[in-house]
Every structure is written in structure tokens, then in C-alpha cells.
Write a structure and sequence with these properties.
Blueprint: E1 2-3, H1 15-36, H2 40-68, H3 72-93, H4 99-118, H5 120-141, E2 148-151, E3 160-165, E4 170-173, H6 181-193, H7 198-228, H8 235-245, H9 253-278, H10 285-297, H11 306-311
Antiparallel strand pairs: 1-4, 2-3, 3-4
Helix pairs in contact: 1-2, 1-4, 2-3, 4-5, 4-6, 5-7, 6-7, 7-9
Length: 317
């Protein structure tokens, strides 16, 4: 969600990143194809190269998250992603073939995410759908207070995606990052990548997408209301928040507290909770979690019980 005083960055953060993203997904899928045809050495090399390109992708985005989006949480995550991708690629190249499952998940994530990110029509449909449903939720909760859902006042997109509160004169808008698609693509990619019956894959996908969609609407409504009604307009918050985020307008403090601090911080825990819940239907997801934790800790980690690993993981009724 973007404050009215901050125009959106247009359809793409950097033109080169859209092209690079498609190249990365194509290389990942080349590795998937090589693996499926039992060319393990080729799959290892192709996928390791894709991870190297992925680190370049995140490196190019650091400037955006630091100076344009001004997000502490996302900046930290992107900065970590650069060496993390290089490390995964290095371990895979040197024989850790179990990382091919993680790589397969990334390929499917990109396939789910990029068509919406790079297609203007799909992008507009998704953004306006989320904006309309968020406005409905705000009104249903009884906190609208005369709020209006209007067209982008900057004239950059022409999307009907902006919440305007006449009482305070504040507005905020839904941008692509507010749709929750990235989180949904993560679980979609993970569900598609693991070796499990189709029925359980579909169940996990539907459950994760539904939960994330509802949580995201609640998050958007909270940020719009906090900004529109200036819920965090406190003198003791103003100075520190303006300093950390480089703000010049005190009226933007409520937005940055609601979005950049509270919502983004809680989103990490929310995704962990969704992952735990979805693993009840698709415990094979724990195999990927084990692999990542093993890389992080340097020792093998086991999350699945022997019984769950043997019986295929169907949850008890």
C-alpha cells in the first residue's frame, strides 16, 4: 500500500528486473526438465546458474526497497536473499541434489507470479479487485466515515485503487505489493514442487490461498484506516518514525507505523502460521523446511515424525 504523498513507481520497479525474472524462471525450468529426464549433472549446473542469477535480481532491488519503498523488513530480507541465493547455488553445484526440490518450487512460484506482475491487464484486474474488497470490508466494519474509493489521483495508472478520507484529507492506495500474490505464489510453488498426491496438493493450495487472501484484506483495511483516521498521530512517535524513514510530513507517520512496522513485522509470523497449518494437509512441505534449516544450521534437521513420513501425511480426521 502506498501513501498518497508517494506516487507509485509505475508498472515495474526496474524494466530490467522483469526481463531478468523471466530469464531466471526459464533457467529454473530448464533445470526441472533436465532433472525429469534423468540428466542430473545438467540439472545441477543449470539450477545452480539460476540461483546465481536470482542473487543478481535481488541485488538490483535493494535500492528500491531502501530509498523508494522505505521498508526496513523487506530491505533486510532482500539483503539476506543475495548471499543466500549464492550459497544455495554453490551447495547445489557441489552435489547437494536435495536442493533441486527447493529450486523446482521457485520455478513454479515464478510461473504463478510473473504473469500478473508483467501483464498490465492482469495487474489492473488484481489490484482493483483487492481495492474493491478492502473498501467493502472497511464499510462492513463500520469504520468508513465517509471514505471514498477513487481513481489513482496521480494519473499514473488510471486504476480505481485509492482510499480517500475527506475528514482528514489523507489517502492511500493499493499497489501490486498489496495484493498478497507473492505470498500466495510461494505456497502455490511449494505445493506444486513436492511429491504428493494431487488431492492433497490442491487442498493445501486452496487452503493457503484462501487464508492469505482474507488476512491480506484485513491488513489492507487496517493500514488504510490507520492512515485515513491518523490512528498513530502521537508526538512521542513522530520524531523517531520520521527520522528512521526520512519523512518530512508528520501526517505520514500513521501510515508508516501501520504498514512498514506493524503489518510487515506481523506478516512474517502470519506466514509461518499459515505454513504450519498447511503442512497438516501437505506434510511434504516439511521436507523443504528441513532442507532450508539444514543449510542454515549446518546440521541435518528433522521435522517430520517417522509415522508421518511413512503414511504419506494424511491428517487425522
Amino acid at each position: 500500500m502506498s501513501l498518497s504523498a508517494l506516487p507509485t513507481s509505475g508498472p515495474s520497479v526496474l524494466p530490467v528486473t522483469d526481463v531478468l525474472a523471466w530469464i531466471i524462471v526459464a533457467v529454473f525450468f530448464a533445470g526441472v526438465l533436465a532433472e525429469s529426464t534423468d540428466r542430473r549433472a545438467a540439472a545441477r549446473k543449470l539450477t545452480a546458474g539460476a540461483w546465481g542469477l536470482f542473487s543478481v535480481f535481488w541485488l538490483l532491488l535493494i535500492h528500491f526497497y531502501v530509498f523508494v519503498h522505505r521498508s526496513i523488513v523487506e530491505t533486510v530480507l532482500v539483503a539476506i536473499a543475495v548471499p543466500a541465493c549464492l550459497y544455495v547455488g554453490w551447495r547445489l553445484y557441489h552435489g547437494r541434489d536435495s536442493l533441486l526440490v527447493v529450486s523446482r518450487a521457485v520455478a513454479f512460484m515464478g510461473l504463478l507470479y510473473l504473469p500478473f506482475e508483467t501483464s498490465p491487464a492482469a495487474r489492473q484486474f488484481l489490484i482493483e479487485t483487492v481495492a474493491t474488497q478492502t473498501a467493502w470490508l472497511i464499510e462492513a466494519l463500520g469504520y468508513g466515515g465517509g471514505m471514498e474509493l477513487i481513481e489513482d489521483p496521480f494519473g499514473e495508472t488510471g486504476y480505481v485503487n485509492t482510499f480517500f478520507f475527506p475528514a482528514t484529507g489523507r489517502s492511500s492506495q493499493i499497489v501490486f505489493a498489496c495484493t498478497g500474490l507473492a505470498s500466495m505464489a510461494i505456497f502455490g510453488g511449494l505445493s506444486a514442487a513436492v511429491d504428493a498426491p494431487l488431492r492433497r496438493k490442491v487442498t493445501a493450495l486452496v487452503a493457503s490461498v484462501s487464508i492469505i487472501w482474507v488476512l491480506n484484506l484485513g491488513r489492507n483495511a487496517f493500514i488504510a484506516l490507520a492512515n485515513g483516521h491518523q490512528w498513530f498521530d502521537y508526538a512521542w512517535l513522530e520524531g523517531p518514525v520520521m527520522f528512521v524513514f526520512g519523512l518530512s510530513d508528520p501526517g505520514r507517520v500513521s501510515f508508516f507505523v501501520a504498514d512498514r512496522i506493524l503489518s510487515q513485522g506481523l506478516a512474517v509470523f502470519a506466514l509461518i502460521g499459515v505454513a504450519w497449518l498447511v503442512s497438516r494437509w501437505l506434510p511434504e512441505l516439511l521436507d523443504i523446511a528441513e532442507e532450508l534449516l539444514s543449510l542454515l544450521t549446518g546440521s541435518e534437521v528433522t521435522l517430520r515424525s517417522p509415522q508421518t513420513a511413512t503414511d504419506g501425511g494424511d491428517p487425522e480426521p
